């Protein structure tokens, strides 16, 4: 696209606006994006009632009676019978018809949270001797139904753990991170709460990015004041990206990598956590050929719609053919796949953004005043991705490596069956380490090192050189 085409795409919108508002691109409100809270709902989700309260009740009971299936600590062994009774109760619940929820999007979202958390509790508390993980029809059927109505994958997602997993500390006061309390927590650990809270803070902080995008989308002409406004907004965006980077780093102050890797992460795993050769989960009562059952990965930061919006606005393409700079093939479809784990309306917003007739990168190519602010934003995002990768290595690769070496420290031992066990805070937990030949996977099921490296490379490629 050359400058005159770009220019006419702006002036053309201006004449469209004169001809009537129906031609304007829909605003973010149309996509269930709140002006103040963005992709986070403007109020906590309401609890389920009537016949659906039974799901709320079993979820409330879960943390008191369930431990990871391979946890052999005394506490876990003492709870075994209660855990089995809980799972038997789940199997006995009748399959509830969700049709009455159809017109109530916030209730559907809450139903997704409750059912998706129940699925994780059910599957990951099963004893390791159970080879095929079967999700009972009482959970699987309504979860698939609710997910279809919302346009989101039928499994626990970033929304279920972050954007929908909070209530207000002081009801009536604004939705700010200081006024939000995490509701569901697998481990009951402060580390897990911190992990969710930091990501919720990023989603709220990202609202400023969405406002900049909205303002740019509504720009109708390209005069000098407008160009200087766009340049100013790109500079603001750079600062916001740097602040998000700081927030990601703040994970380290409250979430211990051992607790993350050994205690939290096993609960997050989706059906592909062990790689493509694993048979995965069976959703009883659901046709195994329905397309949505292909999307049962665990939650990932890759499902944050804010991060996708940022990539699309800055025109960063993750579809590059040639692997990453380390020459390992990366999963090029990952980011697109992650969109299927978002609310359908949020995905539709990203699709609309992707079709933008006036990508800012093209504009920055032709308008010298925009080139540097654009490149600064790209540099900040590249730095964010590099720092994020360090976090991923620290929390996953290093932990996996430590487990594949001989006992890391005197607290780690080997049980009678020659399986590594870990003793921490009085808990003894069997190792769930990956086989040596297997890549270390992220909770989104990816061989994550080449994936994250490819993301850094894709960001760097967007940078504009001097003409
Ligand atoms: C302990 C903290 C974290 C760890 C260990 C971690 C790990 C990972 C891993 C392994 C991936 C690869 C995809 C997958 O399999 O899930 C990933 C992707 C991603 N994560 Fe994180 N992450 C952490 C925190 C965050 C935070 C706080 C954010 C901010 C929203 C974030 C944003 C992303 C994004 C956007 C991707 C997609 C890849 C990309 O855009 O480069 N992560 N993360």
UniProtKB/TrEMBL annotation:
One of its GO terms (cellular component) is cytoplasm. InterPro entries: Indolamine_dOase (IPR000898), Trp/Indoleamine_2_3_dOase-like (IPR037217). Keywords: Heme, Iron, Metal-binding. It comes from the Eukaryota. It holds the Pfam family IDO. Residues 413-423 have a biased composition (Basic and acidic residues). This is Unplaced genomic scaffold GYMLUscaffold_77, whole genome shotgun sequence. GO terms for molecular function: heme binding; indoleamine 2,3-dioxygenase activity; metal ion binding. The keyword Metal-binding applies. PANTHER family: INDOLEAMINE 2,3-DIOXYGENASE (PTHR28657:SF5). It comes from Collybiopsis luxurians FD-317 M1. Heme b binds at residue 388. Belongs to the indoleamine 2,3-dioxygenase family. Residues 405-453 are annotated as: Disordered. One of its GO terms (biological process) is L-tryptophan catabolic process to kynurenine.
């Amino acid at each position: 696209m050359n400058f005159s085409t770009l220019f006419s795409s702006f002036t053309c919108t201006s004449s469209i606006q004169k001809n009537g508002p129906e031609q304007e691109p829909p605003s973010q409100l149309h996509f269930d994006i709140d002006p103040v809270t963005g992709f986070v709902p403007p109020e906590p989700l309401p609890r389920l009632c009537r016949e659906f309260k039974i799901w709320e009740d079993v979820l409330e009971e879960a943390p008191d009676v369930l431990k990871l299936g391979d946890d052999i600590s005394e506490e876990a062994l003492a709870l075994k019978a209660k855990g089995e009774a809980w799972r038997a109760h789940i199997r006995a619940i009748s399959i509830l018809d969700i049709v009455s929820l159809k017109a109530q999007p916030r209730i559907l979202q809450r139903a997704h949270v409750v059912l998706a958390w129940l699925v994780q509790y059910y599957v990951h508390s099963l004893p390791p001797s159970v080879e095929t993980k079967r999700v009972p029809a009482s959970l699987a059927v309504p979860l698939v139904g609710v997910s279809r109505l919302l346009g989101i994958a039928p499994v626990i997602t970033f929304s279920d753990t972050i954007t929908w997993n909070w209530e207000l500390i002081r009801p009536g006061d604004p939705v700010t991170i200081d006024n939000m309390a995490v509701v569901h927590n697998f481990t009951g650990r402060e580390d897990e709460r911190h992990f969710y809270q930091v990501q919720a803070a990023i989603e709220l902080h990202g609202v400023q990015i969405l406002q900049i995008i909205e303002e740019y989308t509504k720009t109708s002409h390209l005069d000098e004041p407008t160009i200087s406004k766009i340049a100013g907004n790109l500079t603001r965006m750079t600062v916001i990206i740097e602040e998000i980077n700081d927030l990601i780093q703040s994970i380290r102050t409250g979430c211990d990598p051992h607790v993350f890797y050994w205690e939290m992460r096993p609960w997050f795993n989706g059906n592909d956590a062990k790689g493509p050769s694993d048979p995965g989960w069976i959703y009883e009562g659901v046709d195994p050929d329905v397309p949505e059952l292909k999307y049962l990965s665990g939650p990932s930061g890759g499902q944050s719609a804010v991060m996708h919006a940022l990539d699309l606005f800055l025109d960063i393409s993750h579809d590059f053919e040639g692997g990453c700079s380390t020459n390992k093939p990366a999963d090029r479809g990952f980011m697109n796949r992650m969109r299927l784990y978002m609310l359908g309306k949020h995905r539709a917003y990203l699709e609309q953004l992707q079709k933008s007739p006036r990508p800012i990168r093209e504009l920055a190519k032709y308008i010298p005043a925009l080139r540097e602010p654009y490149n600064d934003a790209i540099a900040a995002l590249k730095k964010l991705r590099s720092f994020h990768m360090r976090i991923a290595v620290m929390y996953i690769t290093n932990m996996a490596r430590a487990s594949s070496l001989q006992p890391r420290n005197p607290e780690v031992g080997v049980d009678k069956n020659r399986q590594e066990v870990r003793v921490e805070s009085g808990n003894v937990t069997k190792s769930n380490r990956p086989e040596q030949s297997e890549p270390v996977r992220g909770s989104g099921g990816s061989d994550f090192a080449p994936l994250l490296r490819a993301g850094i490379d894709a960001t760097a490629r967007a940078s504009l050189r001097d003409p």
